[in-house]
Fold Heme chaperone HemW.
Amino acid sequence: MPSVLPLGDPAPSDGLLPAQAADGAAQRAFGLYVHIPFCAVRCGYCDFNTYTATELGGGASQDAYAATAIAEVDFAARVLNNSGVPQRPLSTVFFGGGTPTLLPAEDLARILTAAIGAWGLQPGAEVTTEANPDSVTPESLQLLADAGFTRVSFGMQSAVPHVLKVLDRTHTPSRVPEVVQWARQAGLAVSLDLIYGTPGESLADWRYSLETALSYGPDHISAYALIVEDGTKLAAQIRRGEVPEIDDDDHAAKYELADELISAAGLAWYEVSNWSRTPEQACRHNLAYWRGDDWWGIGPGAHSHVGGVRWWNVKHPTAYANRLGTGASPAAGRETLDTETRNVERVMLEARLNSGLDIPSLGGLGDTGRHAVAGLIADGLVDPAAAFKGRLVLTLKGRLLADAVVRRILPD
């Protein structure tokens, strides 16, 4: 959730959605994203819409946030009903941030309970919270599990102290195995998030982080290349020459090492940056994004999507709380996607999945996509056996060059 909101059309104050949103909704999954915009400190690489306590104004305290988020849950349920969108139980719920677990576990449980009251929860639904290793206790994790959470995603990032220092992470590496054990004892599935390519991180450092993370036996691992965003502390440090530039070749070598070690440990890739121990342990909430399902985003700066209608909330927690306090939509803007745009986005997202793209469907984008397949196979970017069966699935080399593959598929 980048800190800069996109441009779009004005969003109506009543939040009502156009008729398009209801078309075919009964056949689509429905999920909920809950953005908790609070962090203890601002990490130097982070460009997300987050705030420390000193950056908050009136009406946006952490103590009041659960009540404000619940007000949007109630608002969302009314809007979907009044817009003719059929009610569907939640298939996934994801609390992200920020650091959701900076809020008391009781507050997270209250928000989840309100959401279940509004829409219901599918049997076996996935309910995830992100967490920093230094923001949970055995008691808080057990409370979350008792409230209906099924999964926790810990921001481990690295096992190497000097790398964590560059990233401004506040936890110590020894904390991670403790919190993994606590989560297991509470009955929660465990995902670990890692970042590679931090300035000053050697290939040996990255190997150590991977081997350490895998030694904890997680159900899921995400490994993301560090992206230096304009306006961040890290970008300024690089510009001043205080830390080295990001190196694309270094990123490629570290991705290849990640895939080698994670695969050897029994986890399989299902999206370019994500591996799970079984298909059932893939993050179903993120898969819903990549497959174009429906979701409502709760919280300041949160994005939503229902039936090709996309909107985003105002950024600051104070403005967000003030709008909901008057009964108005917190949306800052929205857009209605046409068929061509939806097809392009489908290609961009589904190409990143191990299930791949349906090659015959590329004809809907013109001849470019289908004609590109042979060249992609010849260049070692696409699996030839999968292509013979009608699916475009990236090879390891193709995953390294996923954006370039997509550009070759899409028409100019």
User: Anything to note?
Assistant: The mean pLDDT is 91. The chain has two domains: 19-290, 339-412. The chain is about 40% helix and 20% strand. Residues 62-82 form the longest helix (21 residues).
